[in-house]
Amino acid sequence: MADRLTPAHAAAEARLHAVADVFADLPGVVLPAAGSRHFGTATLRVDGRIAAFTPGDHLVVKLPAARVAELVASGEGAPFPSGRPAMREWVAVLSDDPQVWHDHVAAALAYVAV
Fold it and tell me: Angle at the Cα of 12 (from 93 to 59), degrees rounded to 5?
């Protein structure tokens, strides 16, 4: 999967690393740099479960199905994965704004840690 790390993907991974650092002191959080890669990309985990990752040039987070539906309906998110049946609790965040990523990562960590 070495060809997966395009400049856009590398930028997304760097953005996830920067956003994730804020959550480093939360119990059970494993930062992308410290944990294993999944699907060939950096993953942010809590209590061993994936909360967020960057499979391309965007952030994908795990959220409640109703919230995923809201984000998709508003145009803020896209179903994940594209081109196949979507997973109801996973959404691709369309913004590349670090504050937007922070907010979605915080929500994903809270949801996954339950």
Answer: 20
Residue with the two structure tokens 């942010």: 44
Encoding tokens for residue 108? 């994903």
Per-residue pLDDT of the chain (114 residues; tens, 9 = 90+): 344 678 998 999 999 999 999 999 999 999 987 656 666 788 999 999 999 999 989 999 999 999 999 999 999 999 998 888 889 999 999 999 999 999 999 999 999 998
Q: Which residues of 46-82 are buried (b: 16+ CB within 10 A; e: fewer)?
A: beeebbbbbbebbbbbbbeeebbeebbeeeebbbbee
